[in-house]
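Hello,

Our lab assistant flagged a job as stuck in the queue for most of the afternoon. It eventually completed. Since we weren't sure the result was trustworthy after the delay, we are filing this so someone can double-check. Below is the sequence as submitted and the structure that was eventually returned. Let us know if re-running is recommended.
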Amino acid sequence: MDTKQRAVSRLIAQAGQMLHAHGAESALIGGIMQRIGLACGMDEVEVSLTANALVVTTLYKDHCITTTRRCPDRGINMRVITEVQRICIMLEKGILNFELAKSKLDNITPERYNRWLVVFMIGLSCASFSHLAGGDLGVFVMTFISSAIGMVVRQEIGHRHFNPLLNFAVTAFVTSLISAQAVVFDIGNQPHIAMASSVLMLVPGFPLINSVADVLKGYINMGIARFVMASLLTLATCLGIVAVGGILNIFGTTL
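-- returned structure --
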């Protein structure tokens, strides 16, 4: 019995760790972990979450086991979250036992889109925002070029596992430096729109949404932690933009 409880506790912790590391909201993490534990025969499952770790306690026939796991940020990936949810549902329906569920969890990989497709779509989306804001073709092209190059920089820094704050600051600096050329050389009808639109890819929308959801659902500490991190990312982005404005002395023409 003790062996089964230990195995199930590790399975629950692994599932929660994957959900936490890939951007799931706290209520979903706790709910999935409890459902997996109950589906595997545990009498009770309790979960505690922090910004970079989780603690899970299982109760089985009056025997209690507690385990903790670190949860480093591995980037938002909905495929991982969806696959863990699917495994949970199959456990509840009796399609899988905990040994098969462990095997499936081990085989989940955070597959991502082709990087050049992402670069193109990011450039196109930011350029589309510039067009919606009233920019002409010149502004559209400058926004596309600057945001696409900025995304390449962001990917390269991310692949080298630098601090996210440094990543956002450098990406914002490079992106703004390129888009600022529209202001310097008066490209397009409203060149300042290119500067504003090209850095929209750096808005931490997902962490902000999760922070509000966590607070509303009672996970106050997690919500505050995520909001602080999103705010710091925004601050890093602003520092990169301000640095470009200071170097090129263009604040008087853009504000």
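-- support follow-up --
The delay was a queue issue, not a problem with the job. The result is valid. The two ends are 68 Å apart (CA to CA). Strands lie at 44-49, 53-60, 63-70.
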